[in-house]
Amino acid sequence: MISKRIIPCLDVRDGKLTKGIKFKGNVDIGDPVEAAREYYEQGADEIVFYDITASSDKRDIMIDVVRRVAETIFIPFSVGGGIRNLEDMRKVIGAGAEKVSVNSAAVLEPDIITQGARAFGSQCVVLGMDVKKTAASKKTPSGYEIVIEGGRTFTGIDALWWAKEAERLGAGEICLNSIDADGVQDGYEINLTALISGNVRIPVIASGGAGKPEHLADVLTAGRADAALIASMVHYRTYTIREIKQYLSSQNIAMRMFW
Amino acid sequence: MIAIIEYNAGNITSVARALNSIGQDFIITNDTKMLDAASHAVFPGVGAAGEAMAYLKDKKLDTWLKHCFQSGKPILGICLGTQIILDRSEENDTECIGLVAGVTKRFPDNLTSAGRVLKIPHMGWNSVALKHHHPLFAGVPKEAEFYFVHSYYPSPADPSAVLGTTDYGMTFCSVLAVNNLVAVQFHPEKSGRPGLQILKNFCAWEGK
Questions:
Q1: What is the pLDDT of residues B98-141, one digit of tens each?
Q2: Most exposed: A34, A108, A121, B80, by fewest CB within 10 Å?
Q3: Closest Cα of chain B to A3: distance in Å?
């Protein structure tokens, strides 16, 4: 049976990790390619890169990073952040990423999902959704609202509606990030994840809130997520990916344990 | 020399990178003369059956693959490359190459596991149960898993063509083997070390 995926997320700015990541011997690694190699060795099932490079003239640095990652690790990886159009997608996929994720741009211009799916196949197009809890209303009946531009801008769009709409437009997967849970390390937003995952037929990656292995167990069972994104809990060496997978496997959650 | 058959189907560069990483020389070509000169042929693919077949026919690569299969040259099909070696695909009801009798079918919409409806595509890591030993899997432990991304699966007419199966709410053929042909539904080039081992094994295989 298919295994649940554990996916470390790396934030990259100007070709460097935004925060040093601690590895063997507590060496601080700033190179995203080396970090990807480490997580590949530790048993990551996939890797997500977020490019938070601000200036557009430095964006080609990321393409070079993608190319070097593709020569180094032999598992799927995706790239998101600042993907605005088909040309951006083409560059990232051409450099060797398996998937590309679109977030704000898809909200502003939903056709980018369809264009991407047509050009590269649905399996290449991940919809990134940043979601905030809100009062259930006529506009947002699910009680969850889509926010964009890194959580600064409220859109008034209902999260459940948008997930279904993105699936209809051709997205192959959803990376669902709870802004409320993000960075707090107090557990994923289980209700939100179960709501979205239970109502679409494409895989859902839960994101935001992972602090300990039990959090992943919850979101992969009660939360019905197909995969779980992790960051701080592995970046600061609180846990290794192997330790997390061993725990989840002991909880009878299907994990890839040989690599 | 290993040849990767070049056509408009996605993952050719990832296969090339994987071969590079295991130190294997290769060429990427759609020229049948160069393909003839190669010792092994890798037939990859991501995308839709209809478009892939149109391109292959246009370049006469469908005919070349038939000759190649008869010649005894080792062939490795990957993902779409595996699906379109059968007679026909349910994807846009496409007539395919027909190296192996059978049909590529779409996963039914109502697959369930533990009471929950399964997602389509089947995307992620899954295991393969082998029916018997094959040189392609030499040194690959049975607990190894492989990366899959697909909504269609190969269904050969003759059960003896099935080398390996995978479970996803149903049991489907994930590895085909007939004579000098082996074809996998998963992506060895994206399946970590076990996947690279399979590529190494293929390059060393004489097709017997």
A1: 999 999 999 999 999 888 889 999 999 999 999 999 999 999 99
A2: A108
A3: 6
A39 lies in which domain range?
5-250
Q: Which residue of A has its CA nearest to B189?
A: A74
Per the structure, how many domains does chain A have?
A: 1
A64 is a domain residue = yes
**8 A C-beta contact, residue A223 and residue A174:** no
State which residue of chain A sits closest to B129, comparing Cα positions: A1
Asked if residue A79 is part of any domain, the answer here is: yes
B residues 181-200 closer than 8 Å to A (CB): 189-196
Range of the domain at B165: 2-204
DSSP A41-96: HHT-S-EEEEE---SGGGHHHHHHHHHHHHHH--S-EEEESS--SHHHHHHHHHTT
Choice among B6, B40, B122, B189 that is catalytic: B189
Task: Sort out which chain A residues have CB atoms less than 8 A from B126's CB and list them.
Answer: 1-3
- In A179-248, where do the E strands start and end? 204-207, 227-230
What CATH number did the domain enclosing B175 receive?
Answer: 3.40.50.880
Q: Residue A194 is part of a domain; what is its CATH number?
A: 3.20.20.70
Residue written as tokens 């190699």? A37
* Interface contact B123-A173, CB threshold 8 A: yes
CA dihedral A79, A80, A86, A89 (to 10 degrees): -10
* pLDDT tens digits, A54-82: 777 788 899 999 999 999 999 999 999 98
3-state secondary structure of B156: strand
> CA torsion A206→A212→A218→A224, rounded to 10°?
20
C-alpha span between B183 and B204 (Å, rounded): 16
